Amino acid sequence: MTVLLKKPMHRRALLRGLLQGAAVTLPLPFLDCVLDERGEALAATGQELPIRFGTWYWGMGHTPGHAIREKRQTAPGIEFLEETQALAPYASQMNFFGGFGMPLDGRSNYTHHTGWVGSRTGFVPQSAADIPATTLDLIIADQIGTTTRFRSIDASSAGIPRENYSARSAESRGLAEISPVALYTRLFGPQFVDPNSSDFKPNPDIMMEKSVLSAFIDSSAAYAKTLGAADRQRMDEYFTSIRQLENQMARSLEKPAPCEACKLPERPAEPPAERLANVREIPNVIETHKVMAKLLAMAVACDQTRVFNMVFTDNFANVRRQGEANTHHLLTHMELIDPNLGYQPTAFWFNQRCSEALATYLETLSGIREGNGTLLDHSLIFASSETNYAKLHTIDGIPIYLIGKAGGRMKTGMHVVGGGDPISRVGLTAMRIMGVELRNWGAKSLQTSKPITDVMA
Amino acid sequence: MRRPLRFVVPALIAGAWLLAGCAEREPPVKPAPPSMRRLSNEQYRNTIADIFGPQIIIAGQADPLIRTDGLLAVGAATASITPSGLEKFYGLAKSIALQVVSAENRGGEFACRPENPTGPDDVCARQFFSRVGRLLYRRPLRPSELDLAVRSANQAATVRRDFYLGAAASLTNLLTTPQFLFIVEETEPDPEHPGRQRLTGDAKAAKLSYLLWNTTPNEALLDAAERGELNTASGLRRAVDRMMESPRLETGVRAFLDDFLRFDQFETLEKDSVIYPAFTVKVIEDAREEVLRTAVDLLLVRNGDYRDLFTNRRTFVTGSLARIYHIPVPRPSGGAWNAYEYPASDPHAGLIMQIGFAALASHPGRSSPTLRGRAIREELLCQKVPDPPGNVDFSKFEAADTLGKTARTRLTAHRTDPACAGCHKIMDPIGLGLENLDGVGQFRTTEFGERIDPSGDLDGHHFADAASLGQAIHDDPAATSCLVERLASYALGRRPADKPYLQYLDREFAADGYRVPGLMRRIALGPAFFAVGSTADPPRPVQTASLSAPHAESLETTP
Amino acid sequence: MVVAAACLLLGGCGRVAPTAAPQTRTLGFVVRDWFTSVYDSKFADECPEGLTPSNDEIWWRSLPKPERARLTNNGLVQNLTRMPESMRRGPGGENVCLHPTVVHDPPMKTVEGKYGYGANLDGTLDGHATPKSCPHAKFTLPDGTPGIDNQMYRLLGCVYGWRKGGLPENNAHEGRGTSGLGMILIEVTGVTDPRNSKDVTVTFYRSVDQFALDGTGRPLPFSSYNVDIFPDGRQRYGDSLKGSIVNGVLTTVRGDVRLPFYGNYEFMHAPIRDMGLRLEIAPDGATAKGQITGYYNLAEFLYYEGGMVGHTSTADDCPALYVAGHELADGYPDPATGACTHLSTSFDVGAYAAFIVHPRDAGAGTRVAQARP
User: Fold this and answer.
1) Fewer CB within 10 A of the end CB, N or C, for chain A?
2) ipTM of this predicted structure
3) Distance from CA of B439 to the nearest CA of C (A)
4) How far is CA B295 from each of CA B4, B12, B263, C144, rounded to the nearest angstrom?
């Protein structure tokens, strides 16, 4: 049995008690005793694997009454109905959160926007383009993502790079990778250092590059002092970004700890021109998602990143079936409800595909064995949408799944009923499980300090 | 090929002289602090091509800008760079630097030769970085910046045992510094207004060059700027006229139009291949180009009236476009462009009937009166349409007989339901005027067997069909004041809130026959263009350790 | 609605003179599908003696057993591989497709069924001799219409490869689609109403431009095609017929027309006598389908058939075909010999709306006349 060796703990972070999520990028001497993320000594028997955090996004939510059977109060057991049947095999590995509210404090519900912003940042946006605060994945990444080559990775099978639900603000929102080949190149291309290769030698060219880069960063810092206040804030972001680049170089100069689960995947084939012209036709979206899921999972298994974000369909669900005039989104507004079925048949069909895709994602993660369990066991996946019932743009009861065992820190199998509590409780819970010790999170009516202890181990 | 603009500028100058006697003066604007605008992908490409040559291959692009106040160019002033964005910039920089020093290219870039090419050469490096650095930073390098560049090149050359690879390593970093990636407005004391600051000559050069040519200022312009020529009215006029006479003005005008008409949407445009088999990837490229060619032909080559954009029947099409427009072209293959003028009996006229407008403002599988109406309001008339409310109850619109007929019938509820009508009456009646064009811009007279009625009303101006809707836009004062507002915002890098300034430009635009080059010139020569206020507070030391973005402990963001 | 470039009247454009009265317009089509009209039944009932033996079979049967074994390695050599051998079975080693009279093969099996597609070309109901036709049997349309002349079908209907789905037609179809060779343009001028026009002129050209195809390989309607001209500006084709459109169906009178043809790597100038076109135009004007009927020149056809390379897949036999073709020919007797020189024929045609561009339309301005419904 081989496990992922623990990375050296960063003393500065340790000394600060892991509060504030400050990002530290300077490597530190190896500590005599190897500690896990919380500063607790490891069990004598062995070392722990790092806990990873992932998000998964799908557009258009659920069809009420046909997705997850509602419950009166929190209890074990999730009942999957027709729309989400594909997820039933994972019932014991997840928690479902329903019935949480999104109080807007007088703000408008910016359709297909407020829902995801509120649930992922704890803040209500002031306009349809506003992202008022950092999404939870980046808060987590600032804490756990500093020792890997990438602090986080964003991928999307929805074919729209801009639609990425990981951001620090509207202006600071990276592009999601929409091409499997480009994603592969970024993760496993020339910059990849195989953790299992026996003949690691720090590349002198990279050492030189890093040294030069560091000198330029210092010079830029001096330059930034000469700028106005507003511009200096944008420079902060620039420095965050360029320090991460420096960090990536530093990582590749260290001999990586071997990861048994890490196997260099095959480079995906270039998609045929036909598919590139129709990225948002649903069969292509499903195929792209499948390929990307494998790449992301392996990137995580190879410890290239510990935070990974996947978008299956975007918040306006611009996906469609060939030959049909309406996208998934338009269907949710225009399709008639079938009186016998009680729902919109084609919109429902799309929702089912979303459930299936999430199941595929989970299958991929649990297909990688690590230590005593699987990659999914050592991860926490936050799967969410921007609405509950898309037809009416409802943002009460937006469905969220927390999936995985988070290395034993999360109890699973629960259906948690929110009773109208702010949905930010779910995000706070996820962050606490990941070791981000925020006292409270969110603003105004979405501000909360109460994680959902029913699911915390 | 396009005719040169040589006739335009003298006409402008003559016109300007004629009006000099009774010319209005430009009202003052409240100046903004000096800005820092991130290069757009297009500007990045043009800049590299102009400094290092068009043979340099730039594969990939970084984070897009955010559209603010209707323009990406305004979003540039608040754009920053994400980690993945910077990673991409660094990758691009590395690739560019290696190409610059490659055996094929280095002869053109290095005026000197290293004494020993397998190691550092201080003198030659200094020469190279002094010249190239000035072009990259749009001002001479400061001694510390030059020293750093040379020192790094030397260090790298030693490790790599290659002068040129050393130079490439340093150049890679220069291309990743904020001084390059952002167009930073630097200021100096203004001798004519003691106590106040003005933009440096180099900063003015950059602002002019990115406005008129959408690229970095070249050596000639930087030389003129550093000689102080841009600080005098006559020197500035000379520089502006020279740049406007150049064919490169077309690049600048295209960049503005591309932003103004929101053509970034083309990058993610898709149409259903079963419903619209003729709408191929080639059509997407060609449709964008058609609008730009048509507009350039009207606004630049013919120096025409901007309003005619909405009624103009002269266009340029490829075979791919022609088969959607149902018109014949003598050169249907190979992507060749054919000049075409719609005869009087053809219903096509104006921008809003071009594929580049009608197909962009549609869904993948059908047209959309709402999207088109909104596009006309927001893009062409600068009128904001409120966002849809979250609590719309669509269950009212379920009657089966609303399906299968024309859009006008299907959207009845939009117009009659009080919750919807408020906003939809701003958009739908206009968009319905375009319903003769399907989701990709093909002309049709019926939909599902029912005859389409394209008549309507634009703020009191009745129209019978799309062509006359174009006429209604032509006649609407909001169209020209919108263009003025956008062009001024594009030039200044922010939306000027000063009504008197915009109204002044409106009046001059009208007096000038609504000619766009004249408007650009007027803006570039006016005091508002270079006006700069002070920075908000004195500089404070920057924390060099990286910080995560402010998060969430009880932070209240104020709008 | 279908519109096309009107031919500008500068110096004329071949034989077409669309001296349009006010308000007339032009329709254009490019032909994509061209298939000989054959009537196949599932069990080949129309061939009571079975399908006709192929060249390979005849050759094979003619060999003594030891020769068979030697030349075909005991039957292991594929038909295709032994085709050169099997073709050069003339007494002097001649290729029997190029020299079909040097051997006498058993007679072809030809169609003996009742039904066939086509038109009544000779005006009789029983196929008796007329000044321009030889005695022959007639077919009935599947809908019961009697008096149909289609000797081409009678000749080919029991040849394996000429039945539906066979190689020569499909290979030719593919080749035309990808190469852009042999594309027929049909121009209809003098149209007052695209669904009903009493007096129109239909002219046939060849296209220089290739098909523009959609993602599934079908041509995109409303593309533009330049007509083929000689260097001195004359049309290479350009034969016309008068016609009319009734309820969207275009029909022409009969006349002699030369059409461009390309198929199976061969070019022909297929002259068809008494040719008539019937084309049903779809209501949206984007597509049309119909038939071309007339008398096909026998010698041209035999030349084409003989020159094909796919004899193995076609399973024809040139010497027998030669004899049968001459026996079945029913059109235009040779004045000297009295033997008929043409075969009555029918082709199923599929076309797409097109703009037909004449050379004088190209050039400065391209101000081309066009109106819309």
Assistant:
1) N
2) 0.86
3) 17
4) 16, 19, 14, 62
